[in-house]
Amino acid sequence: MKKESDLDGNPISICLANASEPNTGPDASGSIQLPSTNPATSTMAMKITTGTSELRDITKMERIGVHSHIRGLGLDERLEPRETSQGLVGQAKARKAAGMILKMVQEGRIAGRAMLFAGPPSTGKTAIAMGMAQSLGPDVPFTIITASEVFSLSMSKTEALTQAFRRSIGVRIKEESEIIEGEVVEIQIDRSLTGHDLAAVSLHRAIIDVNYATKTGKLTIKTTDMETIYDLGTKMIDALTKEKVLAGDVILIDKTSGKITKLGRSFARSRDYDAMGADTKFVATPEGEIQKRKEVVHTVSLHEIDVINSRTQGFLALFAGDTGEIKPELRNQINGKVGEWREEGKAEIVPGVLFIDEVHMLDVECFSFLNRALEQDLAPLVIMASNRGMARIRGTKFRSPHGLPVDLLDRVLIVSTRPYVDEEIRQIISIRCQEEDVQLTPEATDVLTSMALQTTLRYALNLISCAQVCAKKRKAEEVDVEDLKRAYTYFMDEKRSVQWLKEQQGVLMFDEMDAMEVFCH
After folding, report:
1. Could you tell me the CA-to-CA distances from 61 to 43, 72, 120, 465 in Å, in that order?
2. 252 domain residue, yes or no
3. In terms of residue numbers, what domain contains 161?
4. Any idea of the CA torsion for 300, 301, 305, 308, to the nearest 10 degrees?
5. What's the pTM value of the predicted model, to 2 decimals?
6. CB atoms < 10 A from the CB of 97, how many?
7. The pLDDT value given to residue 322
8. What would the pLDDT profile of 354-363 be if each residue is shown by its tens digit?
């Protein structure tokens, strides 16, 4: 057996240079603080009926959104759109165009470009953008904003757009870290350094909470080829106690940060207990050396690096959202440091996607900023959506196609979307019913499809859950035409609302004839 060095770890921030506290901007050595990238675990719920063989499926604790049924763009290997796939229906040309852009983004061959989805309302512009986000996966940054979010009292319009741009650019940083991986043989706490003698306590059977401030101990860990004893300090003993590590557990220790990860129980200890919890996982004892070097890849956005270095305790602003204005000088320093990392091979740029919905709500100053921002070296792919035809450019008296200036339209690739036909609407209704767990009769599906053609698709989809409530009141499992008619009488669509306003003319407060005529027109 060989004896290794002290293992008392002090957790630090993830960075290329050692640092324990976030500072204001890059320090004297040129190191830049990076945020921790621990993946958030999704909440799951499982219900098991004891005494019977019934086992219910795992249910996600997520609310059903407007686009929660979309899983991707629904393209095959040749980027040809399928009729119905991954929650998207129709819009073959627009989906294929989005797939071509998506392919170039994944290969890292395109950045600093702009793309505009133009079409009438309820034609799937936002849905295609959500499909692109799902297809890119979690490694490629995808930021979605609405044009009205830019106008805020807390920061300027250009600062909000700059933060959105830098939130859409990722930095993939590679670093090697030393890890210790093996099966725990024994954990011993010898005595306290404060003078209180403690009997050597083995944690084979239980974890003992020692109330003294300073503790020392030993950790015996092994693989199939070797066994090693490590000296433990107070922090490592507390970390082992917090993770409830027992003899027989297979653990992984990051020597740089002192983080302990419990991988599971060893197969050799599978017969130690007669009954175990459902979360108990058995793994094989690791092979080879106990101490290894492992390459760790962190993907963070430029905006996160900006916030971390913008102020003392800047990492707290990532969770609070109160980032405020960030100085351009700091961003220039970070850009220079990231450029050095790229030249040294320590990092690579991941150009992401920025989606701006309702882009016609931006004003002429924002459009001027976009013209310049798209030409910068660190620029993501910008996707915009607009349902306007010939509209006035906000902040001016001039009218332009889609409400965008001509010089910006010259820089974008325009993709048009068309209204859905009845068969496509029927398939969309069927997909939404599956997502909301609602059963429609064939007659109700036909009626709802005709409603969508006469009114709007959004109105018809909103009636599904309302009609389900009516069906539950009469204790029916399927939604019938009667339930749809009842919901239709309760909630008006846009056309019936206009007709009702005409009938109530002169009764409502602040009713003006000219405004009503413009609205009806």
Report:
1. 6, 21, 34, 19
2. yes
3. 68-165+352-419
4. -80
5. 0.68
6. 20
7. 62
8. 999 999 999 9
